[in-house]
Amino acid sequence: MKRLLTAAALIPVIVYVVLFAGDWLFFGVLAAAALLTYREYDGLAAASGFGAPGPLGYGFGLLLLVWAGPAWLAAVAAAAVALAMAMRASDLSNSLPRAALLSLGVLYAFGCWKCALPLREANRHWLMFALLVNWVGDGGAYYAGRAFGKHKMAPRVSPQKSWEGAAASMISSMAIAGFYLAHFTGLDIPRALVFAAAANAAGQIGDLAESAIKRGAGVKDSGTLLPGHGGFLDRVDSTLFALPAVYALGLCFKLM
Fold first, then answer.
1. pLDDT at position 178, please?
2. Which residue, 27, 71, 189, 221, could crosslink 230 as a Cys pair with Cβ 3.0–4.6 Å?
3. pTM of the predicted model, to two decimals?
4. For residue 226, what are the β-bridge partners?
5. What is the 3-state secondary structure (H, E, C) of the chain?
6. Which residues of the chain have pLDDT under 70?
7. Could you read off the pLDDT of 153-193 as tens digits, one per residue?
8. What is the domain extent for residue 40?
9. Nearest to 70 by CA among 114, 25, 119, 130
10. What is the number of structural domains in the chain?
């Protein structure tokens, strides 16, 4: 019940921000989402045993979000500074892992969210689709997995996930999110289904990747912010992988 109530409260707000809010309000919400993502990632990284990447990631992450030039330049700067700062570590055996965790955190928490900007600029429904595809997929996987899931998908990483749930996630995303994309952007049905399938597959990989991080850190949830869902990162882990997948595919099809 908590899961449904949380979703019912948040989804209308997100729909308004994506489809109707002004650019400044949208960017503010996007930046807040990226900051929350990095905050929970920072905690998971600290629990992994190498120490938290620290507050430097917030600064470089926000720089990456607002940077109008080549995004890779901000990412390279973050990696270079992280390596330089690693020299100050009291235990030099942790220097390289901590620098790597900082660089990865900037790309993961802020770089993935940055892909929402060109998607919304191309068409607000492109971004809405990139969010919807995982909302629908997560719901399909959750209920079908509970009812029919027998064959474990990745028991070492996420014991509850099944191939039956994964299939239901893919089918529901293609049927609902694919139709949404075709209807609101004018994209033909075959390509809309390709986009939905690619985004769903990326999202499921993102979900498993975050589960692996939590397993390595020895925690069940990334936080407690969202009742029934765990942490904020637990809710958006699929979206973080789906956003760059949709944007990259859009560039390949010359739609962005």
1. 93
2. 221
3. 0.90
4. 230
5. CHHHHHHHHHHHHHHHHHHCCCHHHHHHHHHHHHHHHHHHHHHHHHHHHHCCCCCHHHHHHHHHHHCCCCHHHHHHHHHHHHHHHHHHCCCHHHHHHHHHHHHHHHHHHHHHHHCHHHHHHHCHHHHHHHHHHHHHHHHHHHHHHHHHCCCEEECCCEEEEEHHHHHHHHHHHHHHHHHHHHHHHCCCHHHHHHHHHHHHHHHHHHHHHHHHHHHHHCCCCCCCCECCCECHHHHHHHHHHHHHHHHHHHHHCCCC
6. 1-9, 89, 144-145, 149, 221, 223-230
7. 787 888 788 888 889 899 999 999 999 999 999 999 999 99
8. 2-252
9. 114
10. 1
Please list the residues that pair with 158 across neighbouring strands. Answer: 154
* Residue 108 CB neighbour total at 10 angstroms: 25
Q: For the chain, give the mean pLDDT.
A: 86
Contacts of 83-91 with CB under 8 Å at 24 or more apart are 85/56, 89/51
